[in-house]
Amino acid sequence: MKTVAAAMNQRYVRDGLIPMFIALTLLLFGATTVDSKESVSFVGELRSEMQMPVDVALSPDGNIYVLDQRLSQVNVFNPAGEFMFRFAEYGTGKGKLLNPESLAISADGEVIIADTGNNRVLVFNAQGRYLYQIGNSGDQAGQFGEPTLVTLDNDGYIYVADIANRLISKFSPKGVYFESMPLDGRPADMAFDIQNNMYVLYPKEGKIVKRHIEGGMPEIIEFDWEGRDYIADTARLAIDGRGDLYLIDSWTDSIVKIDQEHHLLLSFGSKGIGRGQFDHPLGIITDEHGKVYIADAKNKRVQIIEVNGSDKAMLQPADQRLPIVDFAETISAEKSLSDISFNEEHGLFALSEATGHILHQHMNELYVYGDFDNSKLLMQNPRAMHVQEDGKLLVADTGNNRLQFLDSDGSHDYFFGRKGDQNGQFDQLSGVAVSSNGNIYVADTKNNRIQIFNSDGIYLNAFGQKGELDEDHNPPQLGQFNQPTAVMFNSKEELYVLDSRNKRIQIFEKDGAPLRQIGAYGDLVAFDWPVDMALDESDNLYVADRGSHTVKVIDSDGELITEFGSDGQGRSYFPKLSAISASNGQIYVADYDRDEISVYNIHIDGQPVMAKRAKAPMMNKETKAPQLAKETEAPAMAKKEEAMAKQTKEEVKEEIKVTAVPAPDLKKGMLGIKIGANTADAMESKPLEMAQEKSAQMKPQAAAMPAPKSVSEGEPAAAQAAATGQADESEVAAKIEQDPNRLYFTQISYPIKTENMDEKLRYQMMRKMTLQLAISNVANQYGIPVEDIGPHIKIENESLLDDGRLKMTVSVPKELSKKAAGQDTNGIRMSQLKK
Prior knowledge:
Blueprint: H1 4-15, H2 26-29, E1 32-33, E2 39-46, E3 53-58, E4 64-68, E5 73-77, E6 83-87, E7 102-105, E8 111-115, E9 120-124, E10 130-134, E11 147-152, E12 158-162, E13 167-171, E14 177-182, E15 189-192, E16 198-202, E17 207-211, E18 219-221, E19 224-225, E20 228-229, E21 234-239, E22 245-249, E23 254-258, E24 264-268, E25 270-271, E26 277-278, E27 281-286, E28 291-296, E29 301-308, E30 325-332, E31 337-343, E32 347-352, E33 358-362, E34 365-369, E35 384-387, E36 393-397, E37 402-406, E38 412-416, E39 429-434, E40 440-444, E41 449-453, E42 459-463, E43 465-466, E44 480-481, E45 484-489, E46 495-499, E47 504-508, E48 514-518, E49 530-535, E50 541-545, E51 550-554, E52 560-564, E53 577-583, E54 586-591, E55 596-604, E56 607-608, H3 636-645, E57 658-659, E58 672-673, H4 677-685, H5 689-696, E59 710-711, H6 717-723, H7 730-734, E60 742-748, E61 752-753, H8 759-782, H9 786-789, E62 794-800, E63 806-813, H10 814-822, H11 830-833
């Protein structure tokens, strides 16, 4: 493999720029060295219609990314220095940049840019496709006033310096907000060495602050040479693998190299336009091979200089640490979620307070529980549920002041309760739990008590009374409540009660005898407005604290492990936390105003809380649409798990939003999608009567249904149908008059199982879900963002299969596939960029 220097040499010889590779001496550079054997040589420069390169970064595969502030774009070069492509553009909208000042690249190639003028950080993939935003304008946690610097430590954590808010904010490798630390002044740069020590440059204060990974007092690095304070004139800094510091001297437009003992090792460069000369250099990085990359702003180039000859040993890198919590995926759902629950046996449940629906996703099936005609099941503002071992549900029907018993298929079984303060009566019950002996514990919120019933709903006992924080914010004695909400048992059969208005969690024996509390005023663990809690298999506690916009993770001894989340936009944006669940190394978080559930992986001491098993997500918005495994002789469950294990590849980020589906004279449904006008017109123009007639004759299916199938273009739709095992329906697709300028796809849905639901609404839900899966599969095949496909997709035909699933044939213009083959996702032709 050619080195960068050799490849550039050949290029320059070919272009007639220089006759051969030239190694410049220190004298030629005007360099100064003190007790050093080091030498410098010119490797090459990068140019490509840049106007003001202000920062440079290297990707894991050696590509070079250069941030052009004036053009608000990034230029990408291969390791040989050849221009490849550019991405991003000037503006304030989604994925656009305004006066960007800094960039960094993660271990998986994601490009992270300080979008200073828009007060946010943007993240793109290696090909320049916009992925997501971190932060927004503001002065709260996770927000920015003027983010100027972004860098990564060796564990992949993202650090953003915000000079207006005088903070450095820390985010996980996938953009989850954790914490902030104060700045000592106005920083010009920050970087990490290979041992994960942080360096922050403060020119006005004439110092570099070094924060050691092990903590303790920070170290101050100053550098005076021959009576001059070099730090005061330093514009940027970089640290090499030996721990030596490279400083950009803005006074002389030169580069100064010093060691950790503040000794001058090397100085080279001067003002000018030649090799090794600079005009307002604004960015500097080093690689493991001794090369230094310098963004030479006013000369509109990046120069690459090689420094050799040091006999100092390389530093040993610090042990890499997994993030305790990081983002995994989002799952589409309805808004106004008041409770969620996940367990390995029965899947994911989501309870919507506004619609009274329970969404249940298990394996490859989606169920919706909610009856529009049966007043017994019609729930008003339900706020909590409990999933029993047999799959039956207990639901706190808060608005009706009663407890609902639902069978495992979501049908009504029994209910009891009415408004009041007598035994067996409720005033806005908001939590329910079941002990190992089957007794039911209900948080009777406005009566400030916990009521206990047997498994048949017969009243047994109650405990608790009203008690409030005093004027010094001290909580009342144990056993007193101020609007208790969530209740649950840990593995020791201890009852946890979320005493929300007293900002604490109380723990009791099953008979109501008090044990201890978490979150009392003055404790290390403190809550602002806790609204929900969850316990995992290891008795770690997770608290959704709406007041601080954070999720707090607490171990079984009551010690805070970590907390994450903020009011800043991004992957841990929690403006109005409402529900939380945790199981098998994952945390599920719902926000009342958002139509999705955010999922996070959690590791404690470098290990998952429990090993995860493969599962199918509910309309996963962050991964590929579910795919079928090939038919084998393996058992059906093994085939399902194999298929699901293959579905979670994070290269395609789906952006379809799930919202309520308005339907005439019907209650709200779910699983509507925001799509382009053409698609919406196509959906509304299809008559439903024929499908409804067939649907009305169907009986609920008791057996598990296969996962959705999809086949791609390349053969007629009839042949595609046969290929999916649906030959009996191929005559439907065969009747489509195919347009030679369009590609055709056939998609088969998940079954949606409901009890006593209006068939028109049921059919609408299923066809919208099927269209979403079709769009996802087209996006996956061609690597095109989902939002770019919606306006162009057309429904050609649809029919109900005998097993209750919907088969839909859609088409898209062939031009989409041509664009995918010849363009990147920002509309720049790759063939042009590589010339």
